[in-house]
Specification:
mainly beta; Nuclear Transport Factor 2, Chain: A; 4-stranded antiparallel β-sheet
Length: about 90
């Protein structure tokens, strides 16, 4: 899986556009020996804050935590910002 997308820290990667975002999430979801677990979801109006944990490896001993800030309008995600605590390497 290509996590870095070529943009160095501290700004991380930026994925723009519906198809690019769908491709990223599809690739993440279909990566073997991984698990994405929401830990807390808080919704206020059109805004959501999602705290999550991502695990990888055969015994899922390696993990990172992060947060996504989302805006939903008319049932569609119109903006999503994700931040990671740690490194995927």
């Amino acid at each position: 899986m290509r996590y870095g997308r070529g943009i160095p820290p501290p700004d991380g990667s930026r994925i723009v556009g519906r198809s690019e975002c769908l491709n990223f999430w599809e690739e993440l979801i279909n990566t073997p020996d991984t698990q994405f677990t929401p830990e807390l979801v808080s919704v206020t109006g059109e805004n959501a804050v999602i705290l999550w944990r991502f695990e990888w490896g055969r015994k899922r001993k390696t993990h990172i935590r992060g947060v996504n800030l989302m805006t939903v309008r008319e049932g569609l995600i119109t903006e999503a910002l994700g931040y990671v605590k740690g490194s995927l390497s």
